[in-house]
Design a protein that fits this description.
about 280 residues, Spore Coat Polysaccharide Biosynthesis Protein SpsA, Chain A, binds uridine 5'-triphosphate
């Protein structure tokens, strides 16, 4: 199978937990310090060697396209001033990759958003980043860690973390058999055989929850086409991945690093404090 080149960013959701801020501003453009969530995600993908950023947007999300573009007026205004270096990071992002966009017309869930992205991805494996899950790692980014696993196992990879069982209703929860692999910590890799979207704590198959990082093989699109609406009436990526897991094609990976749920106010504040303290140190 091909080398990974593309990364999909589903970014069409309404972000209702951040209303009224998200009435006119996409949730993915909310900044932690001075950088929008989506830029952190794109930087993580670039670090992992991915070159094409495929973004699924929706109505009211045009500022995403403007952000990953040159603003000539602004460039002209601050050229030669001390403020010029504020744009250094975003300029290097724009130079390091290409962006393509498509719109999800009806917000029918994450699985549907990923299927909408097929037109940008085509028939090759790809990364998926949910930018509202903001990750910080000491050495390699989560996506870099996952690309290494994909290259070894050549199947879908989902990033998981241990959660308190009472929080299972917020996540897709997996279970399976630990893979013995000396290159990884004991228990870090699991061959998934079951996964449930947002289970009640008593129905959760384990305490391992999927976070917003995936590597998917293109056969997922065929499965998604046949996936019926599940929890919340939405087309769930978890339901499609369960079909792949049944034939042994999903590995879960307990990543090294920290994750902040910036789709919730608590997680967003926690991330802001964490990154602020980090730049002070
Ligand atoms: P969330 O459920 O966290 O996002 O979806 P949301 O629906 O925007 O937020 P709330 O719950 O109303 O506050 C996870 C990711 O999937 C994308 C979202 O943009 C987010 O990045 N998504 C979700 C889509 O692109 N399309 C959808 O139909 C649903």
């Amino acid at each position: 199978m091909n080398k990974l080149k593309k990364c999909l960013f589903p970014a069409a959701g309404y972000g209702t937990r951040f209303l009224p801020a998200t009435k006119a501003i996409p949730k993915e453009m909310l900044p932690v310090l001075t950088k929008p969530l989506l830029q952190y995600g794109v930087e993580e993908a670039i670090e992992a060697g991915l070159e094409t950023m495929a973004i699924v947007t929706g109505r009211g999300k045009r500022s995403i396209e403007d952000h990953f573009d040159i603003s000539y007026e602004l460039e002209h205004q601050i050229k030669g001033t001390s403020k010029e270096n504020y744009l250094t990071e975003i300029r290097s992002v724009i130079n390091a990759c290409t962006f393509s966009y498509t719109r999800q017309v009806e917000m029918k869930g994450l699985g549907h958003a990923i299927l909408t992205g097929e037109t940008l991805i085509g028939n090759e494996p790809f990364g998926v980043v949910l930018a509202d899950d903001l990750c910080d790692c000491e050495r390699e980014g989560v996506l870099t860690q996952m690309v290494n696993i994909y290259e070894k196992y050549k199947c879908c990879v989902v990033a998981v973390e241990e959660i308190p069982k009472e929080e299972s209703k917020k996540y897709g929860v997996i279970s399976g058999d630990v893979i013995k692999d000396e290159s990884y910590k004991a228990g870090a890799l699991v061959r998934v055989n079951d996964m449930v979207e947002k289970p009640e704590p008593q129905d959760a198959p384990s305490n391992l929850a999927i976070i917003g990082r995936y590597i998917l093989t293109p056969d997922i699109f065929e499965v998604l086409r046949d996936t019926q609406p599940g929890k919340g009436g939405e087309i769930q990526i978890t339901d499609a991945l369960l079909e792949m897991a049944k034939i042994g094609k999903v590995v879960a990976y307990k990543f090294d690093g920290k994750r902040f749920d910036c789709g919730s106010v608590d997680g967003f504040v926690e991330a802001t404090n964490y990154f602020y303290e980090k730049i002070q140190a």
